[in-house]
Structure formats: structure tokens, C-alpha cells
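Any chance you could type out a protein's amino acid sequence plus the matching C-alpha cells because I've never seen that pairing?

——
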Amino acid sequence: MKQHPEWKLSIGDGRGELREITSLDLAHVETDEGRTVWSGFPEFGPEFRVETVRRTGKDGLAFFTLSYSGYAGEAFIEEICYPIVRRPYHPGVELVHCPFDMGFRRSGKSLFPAGYSGREAMCGMQFAALLDPEHGNTYFDCRDPEHVVKWFGFAVSEDGGEIECSAIHALPLGETPAESGRIPYESGVAAFSGGWYEAAQIYRKWALGQSWHRNAPVDNPLRDLGLWVWNRGLSTEALPPVERLQRDLPGVPVALDWYWWHSNPYDTDYPDFWPPREGEETFRRQVENLTEQGIFTQVYVNGVCWDLDTPSFAEGGGESIVVKRDGEPLAYEFNKYNHHRLGFMCGEAPKFQDRISELVAKLRSCGLSGQYLDMIGNCSYNPCYNPLHRHEKGGGNASVRGFRTMLERLRRENPGYPLSTECANEAYMDLVAGAIVCNSTAAERLLGDAIEPLPLFPAVYHGRLALFGSYALPDGVTPWDPLWPPEDRWKNEKPWHKLYPEQFYVEMARPVIWGAQPMVCNLTQRVQEDREYAELYRFLLESARFYHANRDLLFDGEMLSPAGFHCGTRQVKFQQRMIFTKETACGELERELPALLHSVWRAPSGAEALVLANYTAEPQSWEFDGRSGVAAAHSFGRFELA
């Protein structure tokens, strides 16, 4: 019978290739009641030991820890891979996890091919599950209260018959190799019955007791918002549709997430946003007018990036940036038109954080309602090897601690001024009021065929963090920053709402059903005035009214199992277009979806209800828990259960 290693160590010099040592390389093994000690690897010194401990917890969970001591090797132990779970692998296996946003499912051909080896982030939550109808389900997690650098590792055998799942822990590296080290948290593994919801409930029992949930304010200042508008551009284009929405939705507060208010082109010259594009005086007047109408208004600021290709980068960017293990700065070219590289800041970035502090203070003085800080929720978990930084290199949680310090500072300097960021996440949910979750609500548009969205995050946490966002475009046309090169602008816009007649309705309805505040993107006066879009606009208003009227479930409530619901299915076509999608690169995806989107909730009062959305243009029948009905076209519904 083939032996498998129980753990792996990655050895290196902090820069070059890593070498792997496994439990099979050590000569001696001693086991005693869940404690196993490996020894006998002369290269690492005569006293080198690796110890693992397994204990059995409640509900059948097994918990694992690993430590080593007596290390006298010349290289660094950089990573520990433990525990390692191996399962049969076949097309029926599904992986559910929450690397960012609300969560996702991968299955069949869109999971991993034979011979695959890779790692996935844990920005959202720290658990995953393999769902296998043939051999049983497996749950695994990392119960890390400090959010140190780590990943889930996935590897498929060359013949495609086995999948290896592991937790990969990055060790913090000092000036010389450490004599001892450990994984400072337990990892849980369990067999379980059910599906993605049941996996989330295993994690929930631990997660709700952690500081980020316990310390999150119960009274969220964003709770009563009924609709977000993600508009961009000059005030004459971006603001009138929002003002009309507020008039068309009496009693339902509207919020504006305003992008491109700034002098620089989008995704360029960060963090040099000031002054406003139309001048400070005009900007202040516009904000005052919006807030007088009761419109919650925040503007875009990137909370992580400094443009490597802007002159100000020389004023502190190099000493602030995340440096990768290979010595290169961590940067990405988001803007496909002007090709500027945005560098990711480490949590140890005082000059960058000073700039953000100064900018947020200016914006607050203009009368804004709150501040959006992009990317902190999903891009601040990177290992950093910048030699100018004081923190230990590689592992640890220096970056998360640094960004938490920045958020705490901004809250202290701007009391009563709610902050929000990108992606639902644990690490900051006690410091921000809200998070945008577009990758989940518009997964077909943004992520393609490989990933199906799931509401894992609201199934674990709900009511403390306001989730909002989608990429729902009423006319299918993405906004265009006039500061970008004009030759890249699309030349042939089509009636996208007719070519993809259900996409807008799905992208509006899904966040509502999953307990997130609805958002419309790039809303124009034309959509509000042209009868061609009358039904789209009516559904937009209905989404806001329904969400706001059912906040006892959809904000305050607890998500219950959705199992047992039955309806028809629908083949839905999605256009795969974002703001940086060039006309020649636009794609299309077709996915089979339930004809009705649904969820089940329990309100704080104890009332339980089924929530439905019919995104189709025809009535749809449904059955659930001995009840049945017909949902009208383009409608929402609430049906009391208890």
C-alpha cells in the first residue's frame, strides 16, 4: 500500500526555489494517544523533532496542531503543510469555500484537472468542504484568530483519481533560521452530511465566538439603506438618476457609491485622488445637495494601492510596498487602457497611511456620509519580504495588523463616519460597516464558467456587516472614463437588455435573496425615461422596496437551510463584460439556473419565512415544505413558515 506523508515542510533561503521535506523522510516515529513525534533527520541536527497532536472535539471534529524543535539546519523552514486530507476524486466532487466575497462552488470539469497543484486564499473565511455523493463529505478549516498568512492547498494526482487538500502555513522568518516553530492555531477536519449550508454551520459554531464578530457593532449605521447606486463620472451624469430614485422611492433610503469624482483617471495615479474632478467648491456643493435629500453618499478611494508609474511613488511607495519572495514588488495592471501598475501596500506603510488619513479627512469635511476604501478586504493578506520593513518576512499577520491599525485610526479621526471596503471578510468586519460583494452577485459576468456563487458568508455571519453590490447594468453598457484613451472605447453598442433579457434581473435579485442590499450600476436618465426600459426600472424599484420592507429577515435575520425547494430550471445567457473589457474580448456564458431564486430566514422575533424572486418574464410554479404557489413574472415574495 502506498504511503503518504502526514505533513510537509518547505525549506529555502527566502528567495530561491523551495525544497520539500516530508514525514516520510524522517527515520523514527513514535505515537502515543494522538501525539506523534518524528525524528531522525541528521541534516537538521540530532535534536530535530516534529510533533503533531490530534484531539477529538465535539460533533466528530478532529483538531490538529504541529510544532517542531531542535532545528539546526542552515536554510529556513518557510512553510508547513498540515494537516493533509486525501479523498477520492471524480467528476461528481464539488468544492465549496469562501476565498473572498460570499463564497463559491466548483464542480466537475470546472474544479481541478489531473496533475493540478495550487493554493487558494482565505480572505473571506477559513473553511472549505468537499462534497462527494459517492464517498461522503469532508469538512476542513483553520481556526486562526489572528489571520496569519496561510492558504488552502489543492493537488490532484496524475491519474486524476485522488485529491489532496491541505492547509499551508507560512512561517515568519527572522534574520537566522529559528530553532523551533509551530502552527499557532488548530485545524479542524470532519466527515459530515448535507451540503454547503451544513458545512457553513460547522464553521459558524466557532466563528460567532471570535472577536471580529463579538466586537462588531450590533446597530449597523448602514442597516436601513434600501438601494445602492454605483454611478461614475461627472455630476451632470452621475447624480440626477440618484436624485430621481430617491423621489421614486419615498421612505426607502438610497445610497450613492460615486466613482470617478477624482482628478485622476480610474485605476491610475493612486492615492493622488484630490482635488475633485470638477473642483472642490463644486464638489462640496454637490455633496451638500445630495445629503440634504437624504441620500447616503460615499466616494471611491483605493485603500491599498500606490501607482508605481506616478511621480508621487518616489515619496514613499518603495518603502511601503509589498515585496514578493522573488524580490519583485507586488503590482498589477488593472487598467488595460493606460497600463499603469498599481502596487500593493504592506500594512507597514506609514507614508501611505498618512496620505489616506489626510484624504479621508478632506472628504469627510465635504459632508460625505461615509467612506469606501477599496481592496482592503481581499488584498491585504499577502506575505511581504520588503527588506526595509521591520516585520518578520513571509509569514505572520503584520499586514492585517497594519491595515487594522489604519482602519482604527480612521475611525478615531472620523467618529460617526462609517467605513466600507471590498469583499465580505472576517479580518476587518468589526472595523467596517459594509462590504461590496460584486464577485458573488455577478459571478457569471465577472468570473466565468468555472465558479458558481454561493451565500456561504451570510450563512455564517449576518446582521453585523452590511453587504451590498452587484454589476447589474440596466442597458448592459459599462461606464467610460473620458480620461482614458478614446480609441479603446466601444464603437458598436447593441440593445444588450434584449440580447441578454434575464441578466439584469438575476443580478438585481440574487443579492436581495441572499441578504445583501441591492445595487444598480451605471444608472442613466435614459433608463428612467425611455419606455423601452420601463419594466427594468420597475423591477429595480421593486427590488429596493422589497429588501427594505423585509429587513427583519434580510438584514437582521439568520439564514436557514434552503433544502427542499422545488421549481423549474432556466438556461440564462450572460454577457461577460466589465469596464476594462475591450470590444473584441467580450464573452458570453450560458448557465442553467433555478427559474426562481430562493432563501429561507428566521427573524429575531422567531418568525421564519421563505423568500422568492422570479427573474423570468413568465409566472413560475414552486413547492416547499408542503406549500406551493405561482410566482408572478419579475416579482419578489415572502411566505411565512412559522
In short: The mean pLDDT is 96.
